[in-house]
Design goal:
The structure is a single chain. By secondary structure, the chain is of the alpha+beta class. The protein contains 3 helices and 6 strands. The protein folds into 2 domains: about 100 residues, Alpha-Beta Plaits, CATH 3.30.70.360; about 30 residues, no CATH class. Helices cover about 30% and strands about 20% of the residues. The longest helix is centred in the middle third of the chain and has 14 residues.
Length: about 130
């Protein structure tokens, strides 16, 4: 943290976070034969102060959502993000968290017991077969 008149004496967390968000298009997003390419979306950026203050922000939080595809794990997602952040050579500490719930991507076999049971229940309840879209 630093006084706003001397920003060079501190590290501006909001500016560092903005560099990460601006670089998200460089992130390696995996692809899958059925689902195509995964994606990422910035949901929230919060940093600085709620009331006017001439202080360089020492903290900023960015919340992202990332659609993963089969074959990706939590570890792969975190490592991909760490590589991107490290490539930016920021002058601050960046923590990456993937809080629960984290849902591993999957493909349901349309011939599995789960899928056939679902289709039968759907048929009984709604009177038609479900349309499965990939």
């Amino acid at each position: 943290m630093a006084h706003g008149f001397y920003p060079e004496r501190g590290h501006n967390a909001v500016e560092a976070a903005s560099k990460i968000v601006a670089a998200l298009d460089q992130l390696h997003l995996h692809t899958h034969s059925i689902y195509g390419r995964g994606n990422i979306s910035t949901l929230k950026i919060e940093g600085g102060y709620k009331e006017y203050a001439i202080v360089v922000p020492e903290y900023c939080e960015v919340i992202l959502t990332r659609l993963t595809v089969p074959g990706e794990t939590r570890e792969i997602v975190e490592n991909d993000m760490r590589r991107l952040i490290d490539s930016l050579q920021l002058d601050c500490t960046v923590t990456i968290e993937t809080p629960d719930p984290f849902y591993d991507p999957y493909v349901v076999d349309t011939n599995s017991k789960l899928a056939t049971s679902f289709s039968a229940a759907y048929q009984t309840t709604l009177g038609s077969q479900p349309t499965l879209v990939f």
